[in-house]
Design a protein that fits this description.
Number of strands of chain B: 8
Largest sheet of chain B: 8 strands, mixed
CATH superfamily of the largest domain in chain A: P-loop containing nucleotide triphosphate hydrolases
CATH class of the largest domain in chain A: Alpha Beta
Strand order of the largest sheet of chain A: 3-2-4-1-5-6-7-8
Radius of gyration of chain A: 26 Å
Number of domains of chain A: 3
Oligomer: heterodimer
Strand content of chain A: 5-15%
Largest interface: A-B, 100 and 82 residues
Helix content of chain A: 55-70%
Shape of chain B: elongated
Distance between the termini of chain A: 26 Å
Shape of chain A: flat
CATH class of the domain at 204-401 in chain B: Alpha Beta
Structural class of chain B: alpha/beta
Chain lengths: 440, 403
């Protein structure tokens, strides 16, 4: 359940003493684990080979006596290598000196192009731009209809006509100029990279509108084939960037790495849901952690940074360590955590969380129940929950509109948490350490 | 430093909240007080209010219990009967006649994969040409399987088994080795009933499920075309009430292939649409209801709950769910197995439709799906037109895997 790459490494290095450097035998064993992990994450076979070769040298240099354990060092090496592979220069949209800036989207059927167009439209608007959507997918039944609905939601007009994609593209561009639009987003039909006719059509559409940016939309759950798709599209259209879609699933997303390695263009955006707002710039470090199966700790940290008052955080942390963290403090901290967005998302970002917890339906209204319970307790009760006898619990349950069962549960779990926290306070390094890989 | 400590606090709080909530008794079929005004299961599109059309009482925030469902269903039946009573007087709108297409040539794996094979041709050719079995042979076999998305774990197991076989049977040449591997795989795939179940005497419901973008709606179009061609009457139920213009897309297909369409409003209750379709099928003695559902990631608990409800509703008399077809995109990697597991757990998948096999992806993940879950692959999609659907043939599939 808590099985992770770092756990597997710990196992391999258990017998090592703290001297000298990592030997070839251990390195090879570790590299095998890394290879399996990456292949399980759908990273392309060849890409894995190259990556592992790059990592090998660095692993041989790992100093066993350093402050970070060899497992941690190896994780760091792998993680960094992935970040480098996924990152590099990020894509900054520079707008055409002579408007409109043309953005064209291409990709396989079902990859999420049309939805991405809607999201881009909304995004460009938020950047103060004035976009026009072009519906050049005349192949899929009701595709233009779909784009119109999305355009409506984004507050962006949609242009299309029942002629042919190339003609729509040309006419659409004219229309954009006429209307003084400064961005044009071109939706195209999904097509197979091996369909010569359709790839030729894509080339013609591209020639007709001369895009400033051509984005390849790739489904995050794509397997080994991602490389073939990316290569072909890149050859035909000269891809400028990639949009990774359906990242709100639980696929590890190795396709991202494969595509990036093969065409060398940045992954510009991450599509993380079906709503138009579910669109964010791509974070290589987070993707690296995800591919390695490490959860999205960094997003969590960022959100925490934004929402948490630094002093509050420091105070809370101190109390946690000392073991003097009370229900009152918990209540306070919950207010902070609420600012960080839906709890469901936060839990999803925590590494090593058992599946049952991760998939449990967590409605933020539930937080209200917890708050109500605590608020129904007197300050004494919050400070010293051990005085909570049956009648007090009943009173609290009635006062908060919950059940004594729930009150019992909360108290029980809080006690467990306190115990855990005391352990953290004591064991600074070693067993008491939380399962958060340190990138420090 | 503060960040990490602050993170600890977050971990504690989030974990505590999550554990508290997760440990609460499940509300689904018990009568605890409903949660404070939670939104109805159908995911609300931004701007589209999740107002269910039928049944009218379904504004309750929690998922109705079985009794509630039955009561709502009874109301719908009463309503529908009233409507139908009126409709029987009015002329039934005929679907636009589909002009009889020229005698279609059934696409075959080999033809469709012709384009794709070009890219990967000679892939195993090099393996075959070498006569001796050496380490390189094994590496190339491993590569072939992994690149087909069979998965590293399954590949390792397969090749281990093959090594044992080589020892036991004294296989000498790489050509025979590849044949042995193919035979193994074919054998594993051959134990399955791949027919699409239809029971006489009642409207059969075939439910199409899967994650976003896999080709559910297009597949329904193809299946509808096939079934109409075999002389059956078909109603398509536009159970995707979330995606923009999803019902319009299915409507176009229904017109194309000569099937009836039942739809609701965007943002409406999908279960109600399917129920409505079943009712209509019963009234007109239609053979088959093909129910479309919204694409959903299996990780979204509330959407999976909604899907469970749709299946329950569809499975109530007068209808019967005889197939739950999971549509899987051939380009999907290892996540395909997770999808199959989760969807099966939720709605008891009876078969897989593997789509987009006309690309370069090999769809090897279906091997794991059949092996680990016992779910047969029943159909294969090879294109975007109504003709592009063929029954799954294990021999052809495995041959194509190694082509």
């Amino acid at each position: 359940m808590f099985d992770s790459l770092s756990d597997r490494f710990e196992g391999i290095f258990k017998r090592l003493r703290g001297r000298g450097r990592l030997g070839e035998a251990e390195v090879d064993e570790v590299l095998r684990e890394i290879r399996v992990a990456l292949l399980e994450a759908d990273v392309n076979f060849k890409v894995v080979k190259n990556l592992v070769a790059r990592i090998r040298e660095q692993c041989l240099g790992v100093d066993l006596s350093a402050s970070l354990s060899p497992a941690q060092q190896v994780i760091k090496i792998v993680h960094q290598e992935l970040i480098n592979a996924l990152g590099g220069e990020s894509l900054k949209i520079t707008y055409a000196s002579r408007p409109p800036t043309v953005v064209m989207l291409a990709g396989l059927q079902g990859s999420g192009k049309t939805t991405a167009c809607g999201k881009l439209a909304k995004w460009f608007r938020s950047q103060g731009r004035n976009p026009l959507l072009l519906g050049c997918d005349l192949q899929r039944p009701a595709a233009v209809e779909q784009l119109r609905v999305l355009g409506g939601q984004a507050g962006v007009p949609v242009f299309s006509e029942p002629t042919d994609p190339e003609t729509v593209a040309k006419a659409g561009l004219e229309e954009a100029r006429r209307l003084g639009k400064d961005v044009v987003i071109v939706d195209t039909a999904g097509r197979l990279h091996v369909d010569e006719e359709l790839m030729d059509e894509a080339r013609r559409i591209s020639a007709a509108v001369d895009p400033n940016y051509t984005f390849l939309v790739v489904d995050a759950m794509t397997g080994q084939d991602a490389v073939n798709v990316a290569e072909s599209f890149h050859q035909t259209l000269a891809i400028d960037g990639v949009i990774l879609s359906k990242l709100d699933g639980d696929s590890r997303g190795g396709a991202a790495l494969s595509v990036k390695e093969v065409i060398g263009r940045p992954i510009a955006f991450a599509s993380v849901g079906e709503k138009l707002g579910d669109f964010e710039p791509f974070h290589p470090d987070r993707m690296a952690g995800r591919i390695l199966g490490m959860g999205d700790v960094l997003t969590l940290i960022e959100k925490a940074e934004q929402a948490y008052d630094q002093d509050e955080a420091a105070k809370a942390a101190e109390k946690l360590q000392k073991g003097s963290f009370t229900l009152e403090d918990f209540l306070e901290q919950m207010q902070q955590v609420k600012k960080m967005g839906p709890i469901q998302n936060l839990v999803g970002m925590l590494p090593g969380i058992p599946k049952e917890l991760k998939n449990a339906e967590i409605d933020d209204k539930e937080i209200g129940r917890i708050e109500a319970i605590i608020r129904s307790m007197t300050p004494d009760e919050r400070r010293e929950p051990q005085i909570m006898n049956g009648s007090r619990r009943l009173r609290v349950a009635q006062g908060s509109g919950t059940t004594t069962n729930e009150v019992n549960q909360l108290l029980k779990q809080f006690k467990e948490m306190q115990k855990m926290m005391r352990m953290f306070g004591k064991g600074g390094g070693g067993k008491g350490r939380p399962r958060v890989p340190s990138f420090g | 430093m503060e960040i990490v400590l602050g993170l600890l606090a977050v971990l504690v709080v989030s974990g505590l909240v999550a554990a508290f909530i997760a440990a609460r008794p499940r509300r689904r079929d018990t009568d605890l007080e409903p949660p404070p005004a939670a939104p109805l299961p159908p995911p609300s599109a931004s701007g589209a209010p999740p107002a269910p059309q039928k049944p009218p009482k379904a504004k309750r925030p929690s998922i109705p219990s079985e009794e509630e469902l039955a009561r709502q269903a009874a109301e719908v039946v009463a309503e529908a009967e009233a409507v139908l009573a009126g409709a029987r007087e009015a002329p039934v709108p005929e679907a636009e006649p589909v002009e009889a297409p020229p005698e279609p040539v059934k696409p075959r794996f080999r033809d469709r994969l012709g384009k794709a094979r070009g890219l990967l041709a000679g892939y195993l050719g090099s393996v075959r040409s070498r006569t001796k079995i050496d380490e390189e042979t094994w590496e190339e076999l491993e590569e072939a399987l992994i690149r087909a998305d069979v998965g590293i774990t399954a590949t390792t197991a397969l090749l281990d088994q093959l090594r044992a076989q080589v020892k036991a049977e004294g296989i000498q040449t790489s050509e025979l080795l590849v044949d042995a591997l193919k035979d193994n795989l074919k054998k594993r795939l051959s134990i399955a009933d791949r027919t699409l179940r239809i029971e006489p005497g009642m409207p059969n419901v075939w439910l199409f499920v899967g994650v976003n973008g896999v080709g559910k709606t297009t597949t329904i179009g193809k299946v509808g075309h096939q079934q109409v061609g075999e002389g059956r009457t078909v109603i398509m139920a536009a159970g995707d009430t979330f995606r923009a213009a999803a019902a319009e897309q299915l409507e176009l297909w229904s017109k194309r292939v000569g099937a009836q369409l039942v739809r609701g409003n965007e943002g409406g209750d999908p279960g109600a649409v399917v129920f409505d379709a079943v009712e209509r099928a019963a009234a007109r003695q239609t053979d088959l209801v093909l129910a479309d559902t919204a694409g959903r990631l299996h990780t979204k608990v509330n959407l999976m709950e909604e899907l469970k409800k749709v299946r329950r509703v569809a499975d109530k008399p007068p209808g019967k769910v005889t197939e739950v077809l999971l549509v899987i995109d051939a380009t999907t990697g290892q996540n395909g197995l997770v999808q199959a597991k989760q969807f099966t757990e939720a709605v008891e998948v009876t078969g897989v439709v593997l789509t987009k096999l006309d690309g370069t992806a090999k769809g090897g993940i279906v091997l794991a799906i059949q092996n680990e879950l016992g779910i047969p692959i029943k159909l294969v999609g090879l294109g975007e037109t109504a003709e592009d659907l063929i029954p799954f043939d294990p021999d052809e599939f495995i041959d194509a895997l190694f082509a």
